[in-house]
Specification:
The protein has about 230 residues and is α+β, with helices and mostly antiparallel strands. It is built from seven helices and nine strands, in the order E-H-H-H-E-E-E-E-H-H-H-E-E-E-H-E.
Length: about 230
């Protein structure tokens, strides 16, 4: 189906503006809920849960989270992505609420963790609540490519660089510094972990093919568009 993309609404993804806290591995003992995490601070506890969810480590996430919390997290996205940044911590009635923002897709997550001294045996499953607000936008590969072509078309260097790798940006700018408003999407296909989206220029009749990494996109990465072909 042919779909003209210029004139679609503004994007809602957010640029990465601050260091992320959820990098690194989840502690190995979480995989089997072995040992004790009863003395782990609530903030670190929540970080470990969000890191495990973000990387798709279901076993570890299920150790830190209650069954309800785990369903909430994995029901929103599987995996949760790597761009969650802790933005706030506050306590109330024995619970510490830790809030995160997804710098890649937008949206906030607040995890409630029972404070030290109030947890059950071993301290596992103490993250008993999770709430999303302004939930992250789950762009699919075609929408991501549309966003890139839209940004390039209007000469928006910031968002062009957000959606594409530096190499892909150079390829686009090799075609034109400002792509213009005459690109129409004419098809898409997938191959070897990449979705290729094709556009035709209504004036010149040239075609443009954008390759988007499905793996990168599923992990919440920016710069998921990594290859450009122009004919």
């Amino acid at each position: 189906m042919i779909r003209r993309i210029m004139g679609l609404g503004a994007t809602t993804a957010l640029a990465v503006t601050a260091p992320l806290v959820l990098t690194g591995a989840t502690p190995a003992n979480a995989a089997t809920c072995a040992g004790s995490v009863a003395g782990v601070s609530a903030t670190t506890y929540a970080d470990r849960l969000v890191r495990a969810w973000g990387s798709g480590n279901t076993a570890a996430a299920n150790c830190y989270a209650s069954a309800t919390t785990s369903r909430t997290l994995f029901g929103q996205a599987t995996p949760g992505g790597i761009h969650w940044r802790r933005t706030g911590v506050e306590g109330a009635a024995g619970t510490i609420y830790v809030t995160y923002h997804d710098d890649a897709r937008g949206g906030n997550l607040t995890v409630g963790v029972q404070n030290v001294g109030l947890r059950g045996a071993g301290g596992w499953h103490a993250a008993y609540t999770a709430r999303f607000s302004n939930e992250p936008k789950a762009w699919n590969a075609v929408q991501w490519s549309d966003n890139l072509v839209r940004a390039w078309g209007r000469g928006d260097a910031k968002w062009t660089a957000y959606y594409a790798t530096p190499a892909a940006v150079r390829q686009l700018h090799g075609v034109a510094a400002v792509g213009g408003s005459h690109w129409t999407q004419i098809g898409s296909e997938g191959a070897a972990g990449t979705t290729y989206v094709t556009y035709r220029n209504d004036v010149t009749r040239h075609t443009l093919v954008i390759g988007v990494s499905n793996v990168g996109l599923s992990q919440g990465d920016a710069h998921a568009a990594y290859t450009v072909r122009y004919h």
